[in-house]
Amino acid sequence: MLTVRLCAAGLSFIAFATALVIGLLSDNEYVTIVNRALTIMVVFYVLGAFVGKIGQIAIEESFEREKAAIEAEVKAEFEKKKSEEAAEFADLEEVHSEEGSVAANQSGAEKARPVGAEV
After folding, report:
1. Contact, 12 vs 44, CB < 8 A?
2. Which of 23, 26, 3 is closest to 15 using CA atoms?
């Protein structure tokens, strides 16, 4: 809402000042200059509020689009990292289970040898 008010106030001030300068340069009467400047100021305040509201809506929509794109990118990166970690964990479990079966086979072979047999 601040954007709308600032835009409206700025535009109305510029219009008021411009109307005063033009009125003074054209040698109009003081009352005529001030009446026209005030009228123009009110018209440009409404115009500035309208332009400011359009600008605010455009900025908010752009922000929401960028926010959604960043959230989607972060989510995809998180899912990718999560799947990589799961694959890495599965590989570690596979290696660990292979080492366990190799050790079990070796200990079973040692038990099957008769005592006193040479290696």
Report:
1. yes
2. 23
CA distances from 104 to 98, 101, 107 (A): 10, 5, 5
Report how far residue 87's alpha carbon sits from residue 55's, in angstroms, rounded to the nearest whole number: 48
How far is C-alpha 100 from the geometric centre of its chain's CA atoms?
A: 49
| DSSP code string of 44-66 | HHHHHHHHHHHHHHHHHHHHHHH
Q: pLDDT at position 94, please?
A: 73
DSSP code of residue 26: T
Q: How many helices (H) and strands (E) does the chain have?
A: 2, 0
Residue type, 87: A
Rounded-to-integer distance, Cα 60 and Cα 43, Å: 26
Q: Which two tokens stand for residue 59?
A: 């900025």
With cut-offs at 50, 70 and 90, classify the pLDDT of residue 103.
low
pLDDT per residue over 19-64, tens digit each? 999 999 999 899 999 999 999 999 999 999 999 999 999 999 999 9
